[in-house]
Design goal:
Radius of gyration: 22 Å
Mean pLDDT: 87
Low-confidence stretches: 1-28
CATH architecture of the largest domain: Alpha-Beta Complex
Number of strands: 12
Bound molecules: manganese (II) ion
Largest sheet: 6 strands, parallel
Length: 415
C-alpha cells in the first residue's frame, strides 16, 4: 500500500480539507493544490475553480456518482467524462459514465472501441434493472441535463446534481444547489476545461500510464472535433492541445479519424444534397425518415452542406424512429461559418418552445441542434401515403419557421 509520502510528485501542498479522513483512507488521501502550485499558465479565475473542485470532491470522498452524458454522446462529452472519472477516482469516488441513446457516429464508435473508453449504454432494459439509489450524486459534463432521457429518472430518484462542467450557454435553471458548477460559454470545448483541470494538478497525468495516454488521445479528439480541427480554437484550446501533445498517442488518434462512413450515412448525405434549398446563404435540407442508429448522419450532412460556396449556414433535419422507446422525433442540426449568427438564438427564435416551456433547440458557437417529438402522429408507418403526408407536414412547417427568419419576404412555394 502506498504511504502518504509517495503521493504523486506534482508539487502540491498538504490537504486543506476540513474533512478528517478515516485511517484506512489516509493512504489514498489526495492533496489539494495551493494556488501557487498550479501552472502559472492557467488564468487565476480558473485556478480558483480547480481548488474549489478539489475541495468539493474531497467532501464527497468514497461516494458513487452517476455521470450522465447526452443521449448521443460526442467525442467532447465522452473524453471529458473519462477525464472527470479519472480525477474523481483520486478521491475514491466511483463514477459511472452512462448514456441512454446510441453511439452513432463512426468516429465515436471507433473512439470508444480503440481507447477502451469506459462509457456504458443504459437502454430501456438496463434501466429496469438498475437501482439508482446506489448513487449519491449526479455529474453532468458537456451538458446541463437537457439532452438526456436519463435526467428525469435521476430527478425522480432524488439524486442531487453535484457537478456541472459545460461550455454551452446557460440553460434553464438546473437544480444544483450544493453543486460545483463550471460553465464557460466562452470555451470552445468541455475537453479544454477538463484538460486544464488535469494540467492544474488534479491528477498526476502522464505518458507512462497507458490509460492516461488513451484519455489524452480522447481529449485531443474531443477538442479537435468541437473546434473543426482547431480551426475555431482559441488560446485556451491551443494551450490544452499543447499540454496533451506530450501525452497523447498520435497514431491512435489517426486510427480513430480513419474510421469510414457507412453506406447509409453516405445515402443520407446524398439525400441532403438532392433536397437542399439555398436562400440568402442558408442551405436547408429535409432528408425524410432515417434509422435511429443513423441519426448522426444529420450533423454530418449539415457539415457537408455548409461547405458549398455562398452558403454560410446549413440546416438538415429528418424523422427518426426510436424503437426502444417507441417514439418518433424530428431531429435536426445546424452548422454555420457565419460569426454573427448565434445558433442558440436562431433555433430558439425560429422553433420556439413546447407546452412545458422547453425550447425545441439550442446550440453553441457555430453549431446547434433540435428535437421535436412527433407526438400523436407517431407510428402507422406501414401506410405509405400517411407516412409521406406526415413527413410533408413537418418538412413544410420547419421550412416556414426557418424561412421566416432567413428571408422574411419569402413565401414558401410548393409544387
Ligand atoms: Mn462540447
Amino acid at each position: 500500500m502506498a504511504s502518504v509520502s509517495s503521493r504523486p510528485s506534482n508539487g502540491l501542498s498538504a490537504p486543506e480539507s476540513s474533512t478528517v479522513p478515516s485511517p484506512q483512507k489516509i493512504s489514498a488521501q489526495r492533496s489539494i493544490a495551493s494556488p501557487d502550485a498550479i501552472s502559472p499558465r492557467i488564468p487565476a479565475a480558473n485556478t480558483a475553480q480547480i481548488i474549489k473542485l478539489q475541495h468539493h470532491l474531497e467532501g464527497h470522498r468514497g461516494q458513487r456518482f452517476i455521470l450522465v452524458i447526452q443521449d448521443f454522446p460526442d467525442p467532447d462529452a465522452l473524453s471529458s467524462a473519462w477525464a472527470f472519472q479519472l480525477i474523481a477516482a483520486q478521491y475514491e469516488i466511483q463514477c459511472e459514465i452512462v448514456y441512454a441513446g446510441t453511439l452513432s457516429h463512426q468516429e465515436n464508435i471507433a473512439l470508444v472501441k480503440l481507447t477502451g473508453l469506459p462509457a456504458k449504454r443504459w437502454g430501456p432494459q438496463t434501466l429496469k434493472d438498475i437501482d439508482l439509489s446506489d448513487y449519491q450524486g449526479c455529474v453532468l459534463v458537456d451538458s446541463q441535463g437537457t439532452n438526456s432521457q436519463l435526467m428525469p429518472l435521476v430527478q425522480e430518484a432524488d439524486i442531487p446534481v453535484v457537478v456541472i462542467i459545460d461550455h454551452h450557454s446557460q440553460q434553464e435553471e438546473v437544480e444544483a444547489e450544493n453543486a460545483f458548477v463550471d460553465i464557460r460559454p466562452g470555451s470552445r470545448s468541455t475537453a479544454t476545461i477538463l484538460t486544464e483541470y488535469l494540467q492544474g494538478g488534479t491528477l498526476d497525468f502522464n505518458s507512462s500510464n497507458p490509460t492516461h495516454v488513451k484519455c489524452a488521445t480522447a481529449l485531443m479528439h474531443g477538442l479537435r472535433s468541437d473546434t473543426i480541427n482547431l480551426l475555431q480554437a482559441q488560446e485556451a484550446e491551443f494551450m490544452a492541445a499543447a499540454y496533451l501533445s506530450r501525452i497523447y498517442d498520435a497514431q491512435l488518434l489517426n486510427a480513430v479519424l480513419q474510421s469510414a462512413r457507412s453506406k447509409r450515412v453516405m445515402e443520407v448525405i446524398e439525400r441532403s444534397l438532392q433536397n437542399r434549398v439555398v436562400q440568402n446563404n442558408f442551405s436547408l435540407a429535409g432528408v425524410g425518415y432515417l434509422r435511429y442508429e443513423e441519426r448522426d448522419a444529420i450533423p454530418q450532412a449539415a457539415d457537408f452542406l455548409a461547405t458549398e460556396e455562398n452558403v454560410h449556414t446549413a440546416l438538415v433535419y429528418g424523422i427518426v424512429h426510436d424503437r426502444a422507446n417507441d417514439i418518433e422525433l424530428v431531429i435536426g442540426s445546424l452548422r454555420t461559418n457565419k460569426l454573427t449568427l448565434d445558433p442558440d438564438e436562431f433555433l430558439k427564435d425560429s422553433l420556439g418552445m413546447d407546452g412545458a416551456g422547453r425550447y425545441y433547440g439550442g446550440g453553441r458557437d457555430m453549431a446547434g441542434g433540435f428535437e421535436i417529438p412527433v407526438g400523436f402522429l407517431t407510428g402507422c408507418n406501414d401506410q405509405a401515403e400517411y407516412t409521406k403526408l406526415k413527413w410533408e407536414v413537418f418538412d413544410r412547417q420547419l421550412k416556414q419557421k426557418f424561412f421566416r427568419l432567413i428571408n422574411p419576404d419569402h413565401r414558401v412555394v410548393h409544387s
